[in-house]
# Entry
Amino acid sequence: MHKIIEEAVAKIYTMGDFKAKIALVLGSGLGNFVETLDKTTRIAFAEIPGFPVSTVEGHFGELVHGYLGDVPVLVNSGRVHFYEGYSLEQVVFPIHILRALGAETIILTNAAGSIRKDYVPGDLMLITRFLNQTGRSVYPGGNEPKNVFESEMLKQVVRIASQASIPLKLGSYVGLNGPSYETPAEIRFLRSKNADAVGMSTIHEGMAAFQLGMRVLGISCLTNYAAGILDQPLNHAEVIETGQRVREDFSRLLSVLVQALAL
# Structure
């Protein structure tokens, strides 16, 4: 992987000065944050050697460098998932690239299903714990750390959100493989594990980033209730629609976080 990372970074640098200490990964329907940046340079994932290309609606598929005020940031606008046919190495490859470009802190975002009735679609949830239910791990033997999140940084995020009057829930996020949405029986099991939200991404990206020495934050946009919480079917259109509805608060939260973390 080392050689292909070098090739990818060399190609990226031919397109501009893609250096930044803070990076973000934007999930389904959440890519509009990029439009808040100034002086952006964009590269389609397909133009980067070895970079996996997203095939899912709501993922723009671009690596973006831009500025939030005076703060340079790197943004993966979109990601790939196992259910698209990608391997674990391909799923976490973009994280290796962000690290190679100088990122020290990463904010991972996703669209997720709420397992709690009091966490409603449209809520933003700060992830405090990962639950890996994919059967795959970036750590040999699956010996994953108990938690990749710094408690002091989580407290800082809660403080920043409160000062900006942005409501923020806290909870644990469980990652599944997809592509099918979870069943009511699976949700009952996950509830017994004290999971608060469920999705099909983020877990391995966060573990890889932590393994690479990065500070990790995770934020879920709760776009729907998980299966069995309400008596109605799940659909991806609802995920996209909710992401668009809350994008102003979501973008504002990311903006204040980036500026605070850059200090």
User: Anything to note?
Assistant: The chain has a mean pLDDT of 91. The chain is about 30% helix and 25% strand.
